[in-house]
Amino acid sequence: MCDSCATAAEATTPEGAEPHGGLSRRGLLAGLGLGLGISAAGPAAGAATASAAQSASGGATPTAAAASAKNGRWSNPALGRFPGGGHYGAPRGGAAHAGQDVSNPTGTGVYAAAAGTVVRRSWGGGLTGRTGNALVISHGGGQYTYYGHLNAYRVALNATVAAGQRIADMGATGNVTGPHLHFETHSGGLGVTVNPVTFLAARGVDLGGGWPRIDPGASGATVVVIQHLMTQRGYGLVADGQYGTVSSNAVKHFQSAKGLVADGQVGPATWPHLVHTLRQGSSGSHVRALQTALNRRSAGLVVDGTFGTVTTTAVRTYQGVNRLVVDGEAGPVTWQALVG
Questions:
Q1: CB–CB of 166/153 below 8 Å?
Q2: Are 14 and 55 within 8 A, CB to CB?
Q3: Looking at residue 323, what is its pLDDT?
Q4: In this structure, are residues 33 and 81 in contact, taking their beta carbons and an 8 Å threshold?
Q5: How far is residue 75's CA from residue 322's CA, in Å, rounded to a whole number?
Q6: Per-residue pLDDT at 93
Q7: Regions of the chain short of the pLDDT cut 50
Q8: What is the pLDDT of residue 23?
Q9: Rounded to an integer, what distance in angstroms lies between the CA atom of residue 340 and that of residue 337?
Q10: What value does the CA radius of gyration of the chain take, rounded to a whole number of Å?
């Protein structure tokens, strides 16, 4: 975990967040463990924690669906485990840990948590108390994400990136005890940190590696994945990336048929019923869904619905770089990692 990576002032847990001690350790998948305006002067001294207004409530009602923060725009930045003492707010001498550590071997993939622009690509990202190779992405609206202790960069300074795009490799540069990603979320300005676990959870993402939550009104590549999967299930949706009334009504019908709560949210209860286990030789809309999900993670595939050797190689590459079982088969564990 990080031996530094601290804010200049002791952080506090945002309202509604778990106590710091509750995040000391967390497993991922099959035992793996797993936005912000910049001033010319950088972060202000004594960076403060943003208010609880950044943590939206859980479910969306039909009338508020379009305003849900679980809109498919955010993505899990890395797979791994939560190491003991690597949680947000953990003591670091007279300061507090500014992010959440996610541990995995050097070379594990690191991905953009949301679309934006790379505004820092330097040692410590130019932030006080940070060490190691780092990236900072601006997502607009005063929101930024920070990725620290990187082994290698995969994007340039000022590059425009998409949610889920591979941007770096996990490493152990700087003041650390082992390889991991030090991940921070800033809201209200660069230097104003918030708990990354609760920040992403409010946006439908489980930093621990679980299935995402996508509400009606969402848009983007993950919605395209859902639409292709629904078509394979017999619902014939247009894969336009817009989770509007037609798509959400189809999902509600599917949920009802499976004995699930018919709320239109594609979350941990719905995804396992929606995905298929796929391997070389499979074909259909579910393969298009898989290829779309792989492309969201920078695979660069032609979305043709045919699971051939090229798609097999892409699955194996993704599994290997994220420390999953490398078998070339897209089962529930691989699906959960891809769409998370």
A1: no
A2: yes
A3: 97
A4: yes
A5: 15
A6: 82
A7: 9-66
A8: 32
A9: 5
A10: 19
Distance set, CA 228 to CA 254, 293, 337 (Å): 14, 11, 18
* β-pair partners for 170: 150
Nearest to 224 by CA among 310, 160, 161, 164: 164
Residue at token pair 């994220």: 322
What's the DSSP call for residue 54? G
| SS3 (DSSP) at 66 | helix
85 by Cβ neighbours in 10 Å (0-12 / 13-18 / 19+) ranks as middle
Q: Which helix (H) or strand (E) segment is 197 a member of?
A: helix 196-201
Residue 234: C-alpha distances to residues 223, 237, 256, 332, 339 (Å) = 17, 9, 15, 20, 21
Distance CA 45, CA 220 (A): 37
Q: Could you tell me where the DSSP H helices lie in 37-190?
A: none
The SS3 call for residue 257 is: helix
Q: Which of 125, 124, 149 lies closest to 136 in space, CA to CA? A: 125
Query: How confident is the model at residue 228, as a pLDDT?
Result: 98
Scored b (16 or more CB within 10 A) or e, 39-51 reads eeeebeeebbbbe
Q: How far is Cα 109 from Cα 296, in angstroms, rounded to an integer? A: 13
Q: How far apart are CA 314 and CA 95, in angstroms?
A: 43
The amino acid that residue 138 corresponds to is S
Structure tokens at 176: 């650390």
Is residue 43 within 8 A of residue 74, CB to CB? The reply is no
pLDDT at 155: 98
> Can you give the pLDDT at residue 5?
83
Q: Specify the DSSP element, H or E, that contains 221.
A: helix 221-232
